[in-house]
């Protein structure tokens, strides 16, 4: 007996938000009224076949996507953005929706691949000093006080799901989202791929870890005042600086704190931007206010606010766990690209291949079986 398929208005809204479109923009694209789009999304009216095909074309989701039901067991917490005050709500909601879809793909992969388990240091009663919390986190992960070559590796090793894709917004560098599924918690960290230097990515990743270690994941940031949000961001900044540049170890290296060129040598070791190290030196009272201001003016004069020395030398760390999960499935012939896409559909998350590749940070064409099996010739064993 065939199952009657019902158009899911929630999925239409999710797809619209995902693409960063307003109701008015989508209505114009498919030549219907705003009221019609609203009625489709609220389940009051189903679109005609002609309109549905236009919606599919405008939003870039397969037809099946609009007839699937979501798993109600997924609880999504606050999404923390680096630049909430300078990004509009439409852009933020778009990135949040992309992360929700990423999570659904991850949970499908999790059925086949053993990912590192989440390993977050437990909250310590009475520990409120950010400097101490940062060192406590390092100690819990046995990082000591040495420089961290790759924050991405540290996060992935400890069970955080990290990916990198273009945010299409100059103000969005990174963001993080907590989810709960069947009582288990998952943390997703997205690092922008369209504007990163190695040191900027280091700080972004450490900043997101700061949110995870310091802040409430039940906050409604839309209700938070500008002052409160600035405090939240400053705390995450302070955590990132303390975590990447441990106080005692970094102080020992500040031999010539007034010499701007000296920070280039420090950058090689600590993998932190020159400007961030100068801010840290000022916070640690190695520099006075006038010295700090002088160095910052020199940075501006040299054009280092947009591109610092070594930015084109130090390699940007890329997330690898999600990519390797796909490689494991394909390499061990567990699932081909087509079979993985079918598995996503079984889990009510029908998508186009290129969409999945973007969200997982894969090279384009990774999920194309024709690419995997493109070699049809091989050398003869006997070449006498």
What overall geometry do the principal axes of the alpha carbons give?
globular
Helix content: 40-55%
What proportion strand? 5-15%
Low-confidence stretches: 372-380
Biggest sheet strand order reads: 1-3-4-2
Query: How is the main sheet built?
Result: 4 strands, mixed
Number of helices: 17
The Rg value, from CA coordinates, equals 24 Å
Count every beta strand, where a strand is a DSSP E run of 2 or more residues.
4
Nearest-integer average pLDDT: 89
The secondary structure category is alpha+beta
Task: Write up this protein.
With 384 residues, the protein is α+β, with helices and mostly antiparallel strands. The chain is built from 17 helices and four strands. It has helices spanning 9-18, 23-30, 34-41, 49-59, 89-109, 130-140, 151-157, 198-214, 226-244, 247-253, 262-270, 274-283, 289-301, 321-331, 337-346, 353-360, 369-372; strands at 74-81, 161-165, 174-181, 184-192. It has a four-stranded mixed beta sheet, with helices on both faces. β3 (174-181) and β4 (184-192) form a beta hairpin. The radius of gyration is 24 Å and the shape is globular. Residues 372-380 have low confidence and may be disordered.
